[in-house]
Structures are given as structure tokens and as C-alpha cells.
Amino acid sequence: MNTPATTLEKRAYKIGTARVGLWLFFLSDAFVFAALLVSRFYLLGDKRPHLEQGLGLIVTSVLLISSFFMNRAEVQISQGNRKAFVTSTLITMLLGIVFLVGVVGFEWGLAPFGPADGVEGAMFYMMTGMHAFHVLTGVVFLFIILRNGIKGRYSPEKHWAVEAAANYWHFVDLIWIFFYPALYLIGTV
Amino acid sequence: MSDSPAPAENKIMIASANPLFRKGLEKMVLGRYGKSTIVRATTTTSETLELMESWQPDLVIVDYDDKSISRAEFLHQFVAGDLPMKVMLVSLQASGAVVVYDRRTLTPAQAQDWLSTPQLAPQTEALISRRSFSMKHFVFAGVLVLVLTFLVDLLLSTTRLLPVQASLQAQPIDRLFDLEIIAISFLFSLIVVFIVYSLIVFRRKPGQEEDGAYFKSNNPLEIIWTIIPLSAVIGLSYFGAITLGQTRQADPAPLEIKVVAGQWFWRFEYPEYGIVSDKMYMPVDQQAKLTLTSMDVIHSFWVPEFRVKQDLLPGENLVRELRITPTLIGEYKVRCAEMCGTSHAYMESPVIVVSQTDFDTWVQGELAAIGTDPAARGERWASTNGCRSCHSVDGTTSVGPTWRGLFGKTVELMDGSFVVVDDDYLYTAIVSPNTQVAKDSIPNVMPQTYKDSLSDDQIADIIAFIKTLQ
Amino acid sequence: MKKFLSIGFVTGIIGQIIGTAVGIGLLAGIRALMGLAPKAEPAAVLGAALGIVGFMIGVGGFRDWFTWAKGEDTFEAEEFHDQPGIIRYWGYSLDHKVIGVQYGILSLLLMALGGTFALIFRAELAQTGMQFISLDFFNTLIGMHGMVLIISILLGISAMSNYLVPLLIGAKDMAFPRLNAFGFWLAVPASIVIVAAIFTGGFDTGWTGYPPLSARAPLGMQMFFVAVFFAGWSSIIGALNLIVTILRMRAQGMNMFRMPIFAWAVLATSLIALTATQLIGTSFQMVSFQRLFGMGFFDPAKGGNPLLFQHLFWFYSHPAVYVFILPGLGIISELLPVFVRKPLFGYKWVAMSSLGIALVGFMVWAHHMFTSGMEEYLRVPFMYSTLLVAVPTGIKFFSWTATIWQGRMRFATPMLFTLGAIIVFLLGGLTGPPLGTVATDLHLHDTYFVVGHFHDTLFGGYMFPLFAAIYFWYPKITGRRMNETLGKIHFYLMTPSFLVMTFGQMAVGLLGMRRRIADYDPAQGFQPTNFIVTIAAFLVALSILIFFINLFVSAKKGEVAKGNIWESRSPEWSILPSPAPEHNYAQPFNVVGDPYDYGLKGSKFVEIAPLQAVDQKARGTHG
């Protein structure tokens, strides 16, 4: 029979199961980015694309800082601090949007090459494009947990969606930590 | 697990149908270990197994001589569990000998020992007799394996599986094939003989409902049939690497042939002689170094009699090399071996291996032919640049319009206008085909690269050739 | 009418039509507004992709997730009940058994379709010259045959895994039932899109889609890319679900080494499918973008390299073949003990060998590229790694032989197909080393020898085990047995015909017949063998037709299956009635012994949990 204790146990087990699923998803998605990384080095070798270093540094910082606020949000909701959770999540979302504007708006516009301009263009736009797509979906997930958070749906015991969204956000950030050096730092122009 | 007692206590289980034995042991155990011990006793196999499973004692003391406690079943349960457990085998008959086994460290040999000494329950009896019984079968089957190996290898090596061997590079490759055939014959026989032998010899006889022989593991055997195949594949790989090296031996002064592939033709250029041909002539016993490149998509150079194959890639930085030393005079064909579009099946050219003298004669003949007549030259360019793979010269319908009767013909264009095919029309049709598409043809099929790959002189020669086809 | 429109498949199709129209309309509209001439290809690609999304919306794939996004609760998957009867197979069911059957039906449909493509081009190849079809149509057919059957195999594997794994491990369903349904339904519109490739100009590259040829192929190439991309997601999703289910949903007492061996096979398979599949998606996406946006990944004129495609493509497509065969090899290991009435020999080694094959399978891809012109120093190392795969595979063969040795075999149809699988897969495996050794591969690459090799491995590792599995578990699904006589006819007609077919293919391959050619030179002497191969192929098809008839007729007229008809120790036979009930095990069971102890008197594998263990039941099933 289902006592409150067993229901809690059952739910905890289910979340553990969902957690395994989430990490397997990250493992799978990582292979896409690994393929792009390998392609970048296969085609460009020790050359890197002509890019605005300043802009690159700015967008990278924005993304890293957003991860800080994402973590804060998760910690805050696990402590029951709903208002702070909402604020932190909102900041994360806004920083994510700033990142997208910075890359797709500015970097893409300012780059001295287009997607059809040689392998430099092909790899740069493909890598940043696929990453930006994931940031965009991350922003969408953040919007969902923001809205649900405002409605009071999350509590210290029940906030799996926040944990999942936060981990996804960190995953996307981690990808950029590999992509940024690969595109901006490693190799000669 | 269900309710568990305080871990500090020892749980000891005594399995014996003999009441005196039980009582005596109980007394001894309680005296030895005292208050922190719980002792329970069982008298039958099923009781023993049930209690073992549900109570998980730390130690089980088994009356080794007791026929009502099945060793096999006890052993089975004992090794199957996860929690630490020890068993103490006490035998009154064997002059009070006592053996203690720990579940975690029990080895198969010890288990066999345990099962095969004097108690001889009916099940173990059958096991023992089956064991010596099996030996004879292994020997028979083994002999059959060798016989079948020999027969299969005989069949495969006497059947002509490969084309005639016409190059130096083919020789080490064919030797490797022979080795592989022996390996295939052996491995095939090994598995098939044992399976078929067992299916026949141990078949279920009518009315027999019993199960098969009960054995489920043998670690030493597993290790053996891991190590031996591992060594075999390493050996085969090593031999394979040597063979590959032998096919790649480079002669110091090979004949240079540049092979250019395009959809759907081959062109052979001999830079040493300034010749371009649609047939690949090769002097016998001299290594030719082929430089391979493609004009469009990936193709692949292959003459089966030579064995070696190499893909041709587009791009100046992706030129590849293949060395072939023909050893047998004759006429062969090179056929494209990488899917390259519509006419992939028909992309072939003659490869003609001749004596050195005949080769020199051919070279002289080619040099002469290129010389004087524009139409003859034009015919040459048409063959070596792919025109002939889509345009026939005899009126046959093909991908593009036939050249027979083309010059002077009136053609309706896509925009509705009518033009007469003259020199200008043909020139435009070759260098910029999309600007004057004929009404019933499809744009973009005619390659648009000829303006770069053909010189104006060559184009003029081709037009001269077309004019001769009425 | 209303009832018709309440069927998931129907609303899905409507969604696909709408999505396709939106995709095409969007791009055509935007271009018109910008004053640009309409371009067919981008519109078609967006249309195909949005069509698939539209189908998923229409079939109800996003409904519950949308509800959760809004912050509302939905019913628990365990509370889900299907409508009774055939209608539930056409809708969005959360029951793994229904989904398993859905996968199976779609798989068999695609098998029939892909097989028919082969019959058409085999008829053409029976004689030299072109008799019935054009060169371009031939090229499209061989590419379609390859990819349609590959998708069919992936679906068939999902069918077996989805249906069986929860039953075998004692779970009520998969870990993520909604994800399960989503994964299945993705494959339906993807299949429609791949068939659309035939009607949008076809493609001439074969199933491997190499650029530069694929970069200049007709529009059908893009339909091919879109379809495979989404079918790939279906495969990834299914794999994720299976891994989590196996790790988290096992019955009490079922530690990893007491799982039925098929679960190990599925685990190894799923680890590959989860990860490597992303690379075929990425490589196809790159060619697609090269076509759409001029991104020169594989275009030498832009500094690109066609070899990169081959590396990316084969990094998936080689492990993919292990995805194709590992489940079938698991079926062989699962069924042998039941029919020889003795344990599976070396269970732990067999379990580990599946993982071993999966691991080594990731390290061999470039053996498909020995003649490609790739970096020379790669050839020998990849030869070593390629031949290495024979070691874990050999462990399986030796285990099967030892399992059969001294067994008292029962020759029912599932056993016939299991034996056939072993022999055919043996032949496939033995023809591997000549291909895996570089020097001999120089002769054999891109010939019919390769075709013979992979048909042997695919039939031995997938088709024969699939048939064995269907004949074996059909009664569990439907409550009726398939007809034994028809089953035996199927086997005895298919096996020799198939062997003749593949031996013929290998013979002409060795003698110089290339792959993917619509026509061949009569002077090469291939015609008689090709004629025989064509006849053999038609006989194989006939045998499968007999199977299909058996499948349909037995559902209504088959002998009713009462009790444990195979005397299997596995819980779905020893505990459950046939057909298996909704949510499987009403009471959880405990594992009290090893799965394959046939011949050990009094031993049991599973036992229904005693009623005291109520608190365990409340915890849900776990291991």
C-alpha cells in the first residue's frame, strides 16, 4: 500500500531515473559537438578563422556569468527562496539572449567571411550556429521554469525541472568552453 | 532483504538428517561461540535451501555423508548468493576430516572435488560417466574437423575464384588469399562439425524427455579460446601488413602515367611523351606509377587482373598514387569502382599490356596522329574529355544530342528562337552551354567546366571533327 | 468520421500535410516577398522537416510535455489504459508491448518495400543490357533498398527490445513510456519522407551518400537526408530509454549477471545507438548545408575535403552494423538454452563479449576507406583493430557451440531459425577477414564480394534471429501459435536460396563484378551467376511471403497457446499468461536462481514475491 513515506521513496527513485536519462542525453548530444570539433581541426588544421577577439571575449564572459546565475537559481530554489530563484533565472535568461545577440547578431554580421566562403566560413557558422541553436532552446527551457517558478510550482522537494534546465544550461556552456578556444584561440590566423 | 537481526551476532545453520550429529554439533558450537550465536538446524535439502536463502547464515555446517542433503543443489545455491557465507563440511566417515570453504573464494576445482568424492548421489554419478564419455566424442569430432577443413580448402583452392594474375602486385595478394582460405576452411569446419555432430549424436531419441547435460562454465577454456584467436588475428594482421608493403614497393624509374577520371570517362596522359590517350597502354614488366585525380566526383581505378584499387579524388591537393607492374601481355579493362552517377556502370577504358617494343611503336604512332589533321586531333580530344560518353557519332540517342548531322542543322532553343548550328553555336555550346539551351534538353547536364579544361585550339579541333560527321 | 479523426495516425498525417505546406509556403512566400525567384530545394527541405514536426504534433506527441511546461500535472504512465482491439495500434499508446508491435509492423512494412526494390533491380540484373528500367532509376532503387532496409532493421530491433526487455527484467513498462511512444512515431513520417525521395528526382549515390556526388545529386538526396536525420533521432531516443530501463527497473534480486542475456545485448546495442548515431546526422547535415548554403565542407574548390565526410559517416555506420546484429546474437543466446535444455555456456563471458564488440566496433571505421585515398598511416592500424573484433565474436560462437554440445535439441521453428542464424552469421563473419586485411581488400572493395559478406552477416545477425524471435514470442503477443508447417517451409525454402544468393554474389565479386552497376559487360561472364542470384532472391522473397501469410492467418486461426508452451524459465513464460496482460506483472517477482539452469532439478529462476513483501512492492520494481 502507498504510505506517504513510500510515495516519497517512489518519487525520489523516479527522479533518480530521470537523472540517468538526462545525463545519457548529454552524452549523446556531446557527440554532435565532438564531430564538429574534429571537423574543425581536420579542415582548418593549425589555422583559425579571422575573428574579432574582443567580441569573442565579451560573449564568452556573458555565457560564463550566466552559468553562475543559473547555479545560483538552482541553489536558491533548493533552499525554498522563490523570489531569488525567479530573479536569478531571469538574469540567466537575459544573459543568454545577450549571448545570442552577440554571436548571431554581431559576430555573424561583422565576420569578414560568409558561410559560403571556404572552410573557414563553413566551420565557423556551423559550429556557432549549432551552439546558438542549443542556447536558444536553453532560453526556452528557462522561460518555462521561470514562468512555473513565478506560479509557485517549485519547492525544495520538488524542482526536478529546474535541476534539469540548469544542467542543460551548464552543458551548453561547457560546449562553448571547448568551442571558444577552437575558434578564437588555437592556431594562427 | 527483509528484517535483519543485529549484525554482531553469528548465524550458524546445521544441515544434517542425523539427530545425534545435529545435537552434538549444536552443543559444540554454542559452547565455542557462546551467547552471540544463533543456531538453527535443517534436515532435508529443501529445508536447507529455503533457510539458507531466507535467513542468510554466516556459516553452514553440512554433514558431508548425509545422502538426504543433495550436494549439487546445495552447492548451486551456495555459489549463487552474494552475501558472505562460509560452509564447513564435516565428515564422520572420512576420519573426522573438516573442510571450510568461503563462498567468495570457492574455486571450480574445489567445487568439483566436493561433488565427486564418495557420496555419489545419482546426479553426480551421471556427471562423471558423462565426462569420460565426452572425451571420445571430442576426439571423433576433432578428426572430422580436420577432414572437413581439408575438403573445404581443397574445394576452394581448386575452384578458380580469382581472375588471372596479371601484375606483380597481385602475387603477394593472392598468397594472402590462399592463407585466408585455409583459415576460413578451418574455422568453418570447427564450428559446423561440432554443432552438427552434437545434433546427430546427442539427438533426442523418441520418448526421451530428459534435459541436456548440465554444465555452464569453464573459465580456463574461455581463456584459451580468447587467447588463441587473439594471437591468430594479430598474426594475420602482421602478415597482412607485410603483404601490403610488398604491393607498395616503389621502383626507382617507373613509367609515369597521369590518370584523370570524370563523369563518365578515363583519360591517360603520358607526360614523358606528351601523349594523351583514351586507352592505357603499358609495357609489360615495367612498373607504372599512376597519378590519380578526378575532375568532379570520386571515382576508383581498378583492373581486376591487377588486383590493386585506388580512388580518385577531386582537388589539386588530393592527388593520389598507385603503382602497377603488369606481368602478362593482354587486353584488360579499367572500370570505375566507386559509384559516380548515371553511367557509372559504363565508365570503362581499355588497358593494353604489350611488349616494350610494341609500346614504343604505339607511342610513335600517337605522336604522329596528334600532328597534322585537326579533325583527327578533335576526335582524340572528344574521346579523352568525356564528350563521347554523352554524344554519339553514329546517330544513336544518348544523354546529349548525337554529333552526326549536327553541323548545319536547325535547332529550336528554349526561348523559341531558331538557330543554325555553325562554328559559333558549337563554340558557345561547349564553353557556355546554359546560355543557349535547346528546347527539348535539360540545363546543367552538360558540364560547364570545358571553358577551363579545353584550350581554344582543342575546341576548334573538336568542331572540325564534328563537321566531318554527316 | 469523428472516430476516424480521433485516430492518432490520421491526425498525424494531417499534421504532416499541414507542416509540409507551411514549410514550403514559408520559404516560397519569403522569397516572393523579397522579389527573388522561387527555389525548389530549400522549400522542399523545410517542408519535409516541418512535415515531420507537424506529424508529431498531430499524433499527440507533444501533448503531455506541453502540459508539463504549462506547470500542470498529467496522469502517471502506469495509469494509462489503451482502447481494446486493433485500433490501439494506430494511436499514441504508452504501453511498451503495443509500441513494440507498432515498431514491428512498420519494420515489416519497410522490409517488404525495400525487398521489393531489390526484386526490381535484381530482375534488371538477371541479364546484361537494360531491359526494364533506366540507369537513374536503377541507381535510386539500390540506394533506397539499402536505406529503407537499414531503417527497417533499426525498427525491428526496437520492436524486439521494446517488447521484450520490460517483460524479461520484470518491469511494468519502460522507464519513460511517453518518450517511448515519441520515438516510435518519429519513424512514421520519416519513412514517408524517404519514400518521397523516389518521387522528387531520386538520388544516385547509393545509401552512403558520398559527396561530391551527393552535393550535386537531384532533390531526392535531400529527402533522403531529412528522413535519415529524423529516423536517427528515433533510434537515439529508443536507445536512451532502454539503457535507463535496464539499469533502473529490474526486479528484486536481479543483479546484472542474473539478467536474461538479451538484456545485455540490448544494453550494448543501445550504448552504440545512443552515441554514434549523432555522427550520421551531423555528416548528412553538413552535405545538406553544402547544397543549401554553399558551405564548402567537402568541396575541394573551397578548401574542403570529401574524405572528412567518409570519416564522419563511417564513424557511425560501422558501429551501426553492430547495432544491427548484437540484438539478434542476443536472441540466439536467449533461445538456445530453451531448445537444447541446458544452460547457456559462459554467461558472463557472453555478456561481456557484447560490450567488447561494441567497444572495438568504435575503433574500426576506416576499414571502409582502405582505398579512399585517406592518410596512408591509418590503413595498417585499422586492419589490426578490425581483425580484433573476431575475438569477442568468437567467444559467442564457441559459447553457442558449447551450449549446443550434448544438448537434447527440440527442433521447433524458432530453433531452426536460430541454427540457421548461427551458420549464416558464421559465413558472414568468415568472409570478413579478406575485407579487413588491406591487401586483399584492395581487390575486393566495392565489389559484389562485399555485398555477399554483408547480406550474410545481416541475415545471420538480424533476419534469421528476427524470424526466430517472432515465431517464439508470437504466442505471447497474440495468444496463438504460428503454423509450424508453414514455418518449416519458410525456413527450408529461405535458407538454401539465401545461401545460393550470397555465394553467387561473392563469386562474381571475386571475379571482378563491381557494386552498384546497373549493367555489366557480357564478356566478363557474370550473366549466368547473376541470373541464378536473381532466381534465388525471388525464392527468398517467396519464403518471406509465406511467413507474412502465416503471420496474418495465425492471428485468427492459429492454435491457442496455453501455458508455458516452450517450457521456458523466463518470467514472461513461467509466470504470465498468453497474451501478456496490460502492465505485465500484477505482482512483482523475486529472482531466486540463474536464468538458464535447465537440467538442474528443482532450480527456479523467478518466484512470485510472497505477500509479506508489501513494502517492496510499494517501492516499485528496482534492482
Give your account of this protein's structure:
The complex is a heterotrimer of chains A (189), B (470) and C (623). Chain A is mainly alpha-helical and 189 residues long. Chain A is built from five helices and no strands. The mean pLDDT of chain A is 95. Chain B folds into four domains: 10-119, Response regulator (Rossmann fold, 3-Layer(aba) Sandwich); 124-247, no CATH class; 255-371, Cupredoxins -  blue copper proteins (Immunoglobulin-like, Sandwich); 374-467, Cytochrome c-like domain (Cytochrome Bc1 Complex, Chain D, domain 2, Orthogonal Bundle), CATH 1.10.760. Chain B has helices at 19-33, 45-55, 71-80, 108-116, 122-158, 170-201, 219-247, 356-371, 374-384, 423-431, 450-453, 456-467; strands spanning 10-15, 37-42, 59-63, 86-90, 98-102, 255-262, 265-270, 275-277, 280-283, 288-294, 299-302, 309-312, 320-324, 330-335, 348-354, 410-412, 418-420. In chain B, the strands form five sheets. Chain B has a five-stranded mixed beta sheet with strand order 2-1-3-4-5, with helices on both faces. Chain B starts with 9 loop residues before the first strand and ends with a helix. Chain C has a domain at 75-409: Cytochrome c oxidase-like, subunit I domain (Cytochrome C Oxidase, Chain A). Chain C has helices spanning 2-5, 8-33, 40-59, 63-69, 96-125, 135-169, 177-199, 220-248, 261-293, 306-340, 347-361, 379-388, 390-404, 413-430, 432-436, 438-444, 448-478, 484-511, 527-557, 571-574, 614-618, and strands at 589-591, 606-608. Chains in contact: A-C, B-C. Chains B and C meet through helix 2, helix 3, helix 5, helix 6 and helix 7 of B and helix 6, helix 10, helix 11, helix 12 and helix 13 of C.
